[in-house]
Design goal:
Length: 221
């Protein structure tokens, strides 16, 4: 089995945790918003990540670190740059498929297809895995991204301070008719698209992604 760039990134993350090369997060606690001097390592737990290789989904096992805040005593999970809280697929694939859907006149079914076949799971140890990438998966991802309004607003504010002439403030993000039946869904898709674009600009300007690094209450996203 060929190791892909995404798999290498995940492997490096796993190796750094196994070798104990992990630093406590900086900044305020996502639970109580206080800023302790440092966080205590609470536990490392196993987590499977999915990513797309060619026309198949591959699953790899990695680790996530849970930290404890000494001020409130609560714990939270820190997510590496390739992962999003509550999402099983890596961020790169979420971005890729969502952008493909938004930029092209494609259905969800076509978005989860490769060479006219639906993307399926890779065989493991000679065993056939019947599971397939469902068209409802990118549909849900776009709903999730589109609802991150606070993240989008904060990111756009920061981009505006550093790059007020950025194209993102002029771009219209037109959605193909037929991709929505309600105005609500259209706005959700536009926000999702804007967020994906804002993330690229943000990474270019500030060297980091705008997505949440910690598992926080869904209502705060
Ligand atoms: Zn706390």
């Amino acid at each position: 089995m060929k190791v892909t760039p995404v798999e290498e990134i995940i492997q490096r993350h796993t190796d750094s945790i196994i070798s104990g090369n992990i630093k406590p997060p900086q900044g305020s606690c996502p639970k109580c918003f206080e800023t302790p001097n440092t966080y205590k390592l609470h536990e490392c737990r196993k987590r499977k990540f999915r990513f797309i290789v060619g026309c198949f989904v591959r699953i790899v096992l990695s680790l996530l670190v849970r930290w404890e805040c000494p001020i409130c005593g609560r714990t939270f999970t820190e997510y590496p740059a390739f992962a999003l809280p509550y999402k099983r697929y890596v961020l790169m694939d979420i971005e890729l498929l969502c952008e493909d859907y938004l930029e092209n006149e494609k259905s969800y079914q076509e978005t989860v297809s490769c060479e006219d076949e639906v993307i399926g799971y890779e065989e493991k140890a000679g065993k056939v895995d019947e599971r397939q990438l469902s068209p409802s998966t990118p549909w849900r991802w776009l709903g999730f991204l589109g609802s991150m309004k606070n993240t989008l607003t904060e990111a756009l504010n920061l981009i505006r301070q550093k790059a007020p002439d950025s194209y993102i403030f002029r771009e219209l993000f037109p959605i193909f008719p037929g991709k929505y039946r309600t105005l609500k869904r259209k706005l959700l898709l536009q926000n999702a698209w804007k967020l994906l674009q804002a993330n690229q600009i943000f990474q270019h300007l500030f060297g980091e992604k705008i997505f949440p690094r910690y598992e926080i209450a869904r209502t705060r996203i």
